[in-house]
Amino acid sequence: MDSYYVLGNPIAHSKSPLIHARFAELTGQAMHYGRLLTPLDGFAAMLAHLLQSGARGCNVTVPFKLEAFRAASTQTDRAQLAEAANTLTLAGSAVHADNTDGVGLVNDIQNHAGVSLVGRDVLLIGAGGAAAGVLASLLAATPRRLVLVNRTRAKAEALVDRHKAHVSMQDFLKKTELATQDLPSLKGDFDVVINASSSSLTGTGVPVDRSVLKPGALAYDMMYGPAAAGFMTWARENGATPRDGLGMLVEQAAEAFAWWRGVRPTASQVLKVLQEIRALPA
Ligand code: ATR
Fold first, then answer.
1. What residue's CA is closest to ligand 1, atom 10?
2. Which residue, 51, 204, 207, 244, has fewest beta-carbon neighbours within 10 Å?
């Protein structure tokens, strides 16, 4: 039976085995999906072991996404733009890297939250790994304006410059104005505000003023559960529609599953898995 794994440290909390097992069941695919606690200095050895054992692929989570990207023999455009990989396909001795986080986010916003990004004003907060993983897919959804803000503006500028220079982004950039702004003097109101900063985890509160929210805006935190709670409360208190990253988690898995297996769980099946996961204890 074809085998897949998720590699991370820590990994016990990962819902990926459950999600992929349900996708396999719903699409009639015979496959095994397990989790592997990978020592912090042991990613290369674990990958070598997977290649040797004939595993077909793996997902990669914190803190190995950058190492996974670098270890690959080929990388999709969106993995190159993120400079990180969350999905590897293994074939013989070859390692192919992809990053499905951005598509996961966009699919959740458009297909489950029911908010089209086309022609909208979007604010992305953060310029670390999480933001880098989704910027290309947000651009590909052709909003009118995509503004990136970060505590350290230079990092936001570097990320924007990388996307502006990449050949695969040129058509999208004709439709979307991509820019950075200073966080303290940020101006404008947005239809969709996405928190890709780790400010919730550091307990410092939401780093933008409520004036960035258009009435009824979608306020999306890419984390889910308790880690997203502060941002969710801020959104609710300021008239926005709050949403955490659970749907993104399930949708990025669906994209990885489709890449590996050539069959995609349908939207209703994805939604069903989302609801099942939501019903589980955090
Ligand atoms: P991740 O992989 O989760 O993106 P990361 O690469 O360490 O983690 O990036 C963390 C992001 O959260 C960065 O954009 C960081 O801002 P800096 O680039 O200025 O460090 C942002 N961040 C972390 N704590 C923050 C805070 N208290 N206020 C605002 N932004 C914060």
1. 128
2. 204
Q: How far apart are CA 82 and CA 98, in angstroms?
A: 10
pLDDT tens, residue by residue, 188-245: 899 999 999 998 777 778 999 999 999 999 999 999 988 999 999 999 999 999 999 9
Of the candidates 147, 50, 127, 132, the one whose C-alpha atom is nearest the C-alpha of residue 99 is 132
DSSP-derived pairing of the beta strands 87-91 and 57-60: antiparallel
Q: How many Å lie between the centroid of ligand 1 and the Cα of residue 123? A: 15
CA distances, 6 to each of 16, 23, 73, 157, 182 (Å):
7, 15, 19, 32, 37
Ligand 1 atom with least separation from CA of 204: 27
What domains appear along the chain, each with residue ranges and CATH number? Answer: 2-99+247-279 (3.40.50.10860), 102-244 (3.40.50.720)
* For ligand 1, atom 9: residue with the closest CA: 128
| Mutational test site, ligand 1, from 149, 197, 234, 249, max ligand atoms within 8 Å of CB | 197
- Tell me the CA distances in angstroms from 62 to 11, 86, 258, 265, one per residue in order: 9, 9, 22, 25
Q: Quick check: is 65 catalytic?
A: yes
Residues with CB under 6 Å of ligand 1 are 126-130, 150-152, 155, 197-199, 202, 204, 207
